[in-house]
Amino acid sequence: MTKVLIDCDPGHDDATAILYAARHLDLIGITTVYGNQSVEKTTRNALSLAALLRLDVPVAQGCEQPLIRAFRHGGDVHGKTGIDGAELPEPVQSVVDAHAVDFIIESARQHRDELVLCPIGPFTNVAVALRKEPRLAKWLRGISCMGGTTQVGNTTPVAEFNIWSDPEAADIVFRSGAPMWMVGLNVTRQVGITSDDIERLDAGGEVAQTYAGLFDFFRQRLSEIHGISTASLHDPCALVPFIVPDFITYAECPVEIELSNGLTRGMTVCDFRSLTSAKLENIRAKTASNCQVAVSVNSRALVEHIMDAILEWPSTESANDYVRSDSLS
Ligand code: RIB
Ligand code: CA
């Protein structure tokens, strides 16, 4: 079973990624970062989700600001708590003593060559970890992120929120040399929970009903802001290569991050040009690193697979045994 560490800013879709990873992968830890809300709120949300799902997984708190520019928490998409729409239980655990950056480094050392790091919020923690421990990129099996887009952005016409929040951090991560998977809005916006799905969840157990409330809030907000009729499951898409790899198709290409302070700041420039002659290859950016970029998705099959994980989640004390038992995977 693939070992993953999720670096997140819960966040409705982050909450879905945590459940989906706990159900199908060996989730060895959760680190939190500012983004959808302050890092204090995203950390509390991660702890409350661990309590709801009865997960015995360490949570480490991370960076509260980007590397360069100050960050203002919007709260407009995910609400004042960062995960509005349902009452979550009080946390039953505290964060570990280690900062998220050190937790990431130590986890990669412990699980050398096995660990997949999944940034699904701004990349600040991961960038600082890569700078603090230059061997980190080699210790990791890979980095599978939700971020960027090959087409339209969300925070700006061309930039996606996680990358836009800290482009310098994203640049460090994309250039790290670690094997990289990027799933962007061009794919994740197709993976949406409908109002019918929400009704199905609402008829389920305690956990399914909680996620129904979360998705209902998220879907309404996305409808108000972007005119989208479904709750976009951006973050769980980053786990798909290790759970149901056939559901998302990736293509390899160089990716560069726009760091200027102009209109295109935070853009993920994916170079899909098919340059035939060697001479033409010279015009490709020398410094860009190759990355597996998601280009298509079997969206309904993926939504159903995620829905099954939520609907099957036991609302009993034995949840931890449930997610650990191979017989169910
Ligand atoms: O742009 C979508 C991303 O921004 C997702 O990770 C969502 O949780 C927000 O962090
Ligand atoms: Ca997120």
Architecture blueprint of SSEs:
Elements lengths: L2 E6 L3 H13 L1 E7 L6 H15 L5 E3 L38 H11 L4 E5 L4 H9 L3 H4 L2 E5 L14 H5 L1 H8 L5 E4 L1 H4 L3 E2 L1 H8 L3 H21 L4 E2 L7 H4 L4 E10 L10 E3 L7 H4 L7 E9 L1 H13 L7 H6 L5
Parallel strand pairs: 1-2, 1-4, 2-3, 4-5, 5-6, 6-11
Antiparallel strand pairs: 7-8, 9-10, 9-11
The chain binds alpha-D-ribofuranose and calcium ion (CA).
The site of alpha-D-ribofuranose (RIB) has 15 residues, from helix 1 and helix 6.
What this model shows, in words?
This protein has 329 residues and is α/β, with parallel strands linked by helices. The chain has one domain (3-327): Alpha-Beta Complex (Inosine-uridine Nucleoside N-ribohydrolase, Chain A). It has helices spanning 12-24, 39-53, 100-110, 124-132, 136-139, 161-165, 167-174, 185-188, 195-202, 206-226, 240-243, 278-281, 299-311, 319-324, and strands at residues 3-8, 26-32, 59-61, 115-119, 142-146, 180-183, 192-193, 231-232, 248-257, 268-270, 289-297. Strand 1, helix 1 (12-24) and strand 2 form a beta-alpha-beta unit. Helix 3 (100-110) packs across helix 4, helix 4 crosses helix 7 and helix 9 (195-202) packs antiparallel against helix 10. The relative contact order is 0.16.
State the helical fraction.
25-40%
Decide which structural class fits the backbone. alpha/beta
Bound molecules: alpha-D-ribofuranose, calcium ion
Major β-sheet, in short?
9 strands, mixed
Query: Per the principal axes of the C-alpha atoms, what is the gross shape?
Result: globular
CATH homologous superfamily descriptor: Ribonucleoside hydrolase-like
Under the CATH scheme, the architecture is Alpha-Beta Complex
Number of domains: 1
- The helix-strand sequence is EHEHEHEHHEHHEHEHHEHEEHEHH
- What is the level 1 CATH name? Alpha Beta
Give the strand order, joined by hyphens, for the main sheet.
Answer: 3-2-1-4-5-6-11-9-10
Identify low-pLDDT runs: 324-329
CATH topology group: Inosine-uridine Nucleoside N-ribohydrolase, Chain A
Average of per-residue pLDDT values: 93
